[in-house]
Amino acid sequence: MSESSRRPHAASNRRAAPAQPGLAVRRAAADAFDAVFVNGRPLEEALDRLTRDLDDRDRALARMIAATTLRRLGSLRALLAAFVEKPLPEKARRGETLLLIGAAQVLFMDVPDHAAVATSVDLAGEQASTAGFKGLINAVLRRIAREGRARLEADAVYDQPDWLIRGWTQAYGAEAAGAIARALASEAPLDLTVKTDPALWAERLGGEVLPTGSVRLVDAGNVTALPGFGDGAWWVQDAAASIPAGLVHAAPGMQVADLCAAPGGKTAQLAAAGAQVTAVDRSGARLKRLTQNLARLGLAAEVVEADASNFQGGPFDAVLIDAPCSATGTIRRHPDVAWSKAPADIASLCALQGRILRHAANLVRPGGVLVYSTCSLEPEEGEGQIAALLAARTDYERVPVLPGENGIAAEWINAAGEVRTLPTHLPHEDPRRGGLDGFFAARLRRRGGPDAA
Ligand SMILES: C[S@@+](CC[C@H](N)C(=O)[O-])C[C@H]1O[C@@H](n2cnc3c(N)ncnc32)[C@H](O)[C@@H]1O
């Protein structure tokens, strides 16, 4: 939005009322929400840009408001449909955003109702297109403060779009799909992969060690200020995201290609285990982050900017493909993903994944290992890709993942021996301490070679 469109819309002889405290925070949250919907920007990228002038506390609050609005959007929209008699005209779309962020604060955040209502009303006054709706916004948000909770309980609406719920129902059954949708209502904890001694770091950071060896923290605050960050003792990685690289069982002397490697969480795991890693990614900007991350961690890899569907190299002892995907398994962390992706995106991602997987199968030496993973809940991006590869390549077979291997629970392994984690896994009575990202990982072996039976 341009600065000029934010100017108070009407000249007035009256003295302007003092600006509502917290207005800049709500403006940034509303702008970030609009950046996701109007401009299709990722939420984190929008927030980075829009909160640059805020202090740490306000930046965190703006993030929380925008993320909570996106996380609970299905419920919030249903409430507005019930409480706003006539939808706002298209030219006053911003008014709907202000209603949504106001309602999110009233219902799901520890914000006084009057602050949530007054800031949305004042922001409406900033633009000519919404100034005429100040009264309506005030009345609807007050009503939501009085009646919203009861209505939410009575209606029990899903927060995610219908097409996602339908897909999860088909893949996991109605009950599991409902549980996944509910699990996504909570913010994810912060998981760390530590180079050595998880128990020590759990103690230092006030976290707990998970069965997979990750250290889990809650309300960690600014990550870069935590002990061990500057020294490169650990890196941020969801516990489920640490599973695929573990399936390689990397060891000193092994030649491993990490295709689709940036920003390098899995490269770091492989390098920390002593492997010679070739980290390949198409994005130069993301590889820059990978290089910075490895430097902080004191780890090394050969870094190659290339398209993984035609990268030439190897043959490798192991190839890991953490394929570009819809990322629907990360909606707890990135609630915008639920709304920024559409079925057509899944179809084009599947085509890209298939190309990368088919090409990667040629880079593995006979007897070597191929691990394929995605952070998607959609089976066509995971199970479907492996079924298609195995149908086309008789020189590959699955090496089933075993319960207990690297702390992987039996519940996270499907009938074919592939890992399928869900946000409902690793439950905890405090939902902020439980859950896993939705991940898929399969391990295959290329037949032949010195390891042939
Ligand atoms: C899921 S992310 C990888 C995360 C990374 N493995 C980690 O653990 O930090 C997918 C990556 O695939 C990269 N990518 C997308 N299409 C690609 C292609 N055709 N060739 C190589 N990399 C690609 C993206 O730039 C992105 O960095």
TrEMBL record:
The active site is at 375 (nucleophile). The keyword S-adenosyl-L-methionine applies. SUPFAM superfamilies: NusB-like (SSF48013), S-adenosyl-L-methionine-dependent methyltransferases (SSF53335). Gene3D superfamilies: NusB-like, Vaccinia Virus protein VP39. It catalyses: cytidine(967) in 16S rRNA + S-adenosyl-L-methionine = 5-methylcytidine(967) in 16S rRNA + S-adenosyl-L-homocysteine + H(+). GO terms for biological process: methylation. It comes from the Bacteria. It holds the Pfam family Methyltr_RsmB-F. GO terms for molecular function: methyltransferase activity. Residues 152-447 form the SAM-dependent MTase RsmB/NOP-type domain. Keywords: Cytoplasm, Methyltransferase, RNA-binding, rRNA processing, S-adenosyl-L-methionine, Transferase. S-adenosyl-L-methionine binds at residues 260-266, 281, 322. It is found in: Cytoplasm. Residues 1-22 are annotated as: Disordered. It is an enzyme of class 2 (transferase). Its main location: cytoplasm. The keyword Repeat does not apply. Its EC number is 2.1.1.176. Belongs to the class I-like SAM-binding methyltransferase superfamily. RsmB/NOP family. Specifically methylates the cytosine at position 967 (m5C967) of 16S rRNA. This is 16S rRNA (cytosine(967)-C(5))-methyltransferase. It comes from Ancylobacter oerskovii. The lineage of its organism: Bacteria, Pseudomonadati, Pseudomonadota, Alphaproteobacteria, Hyphomicrobiales.
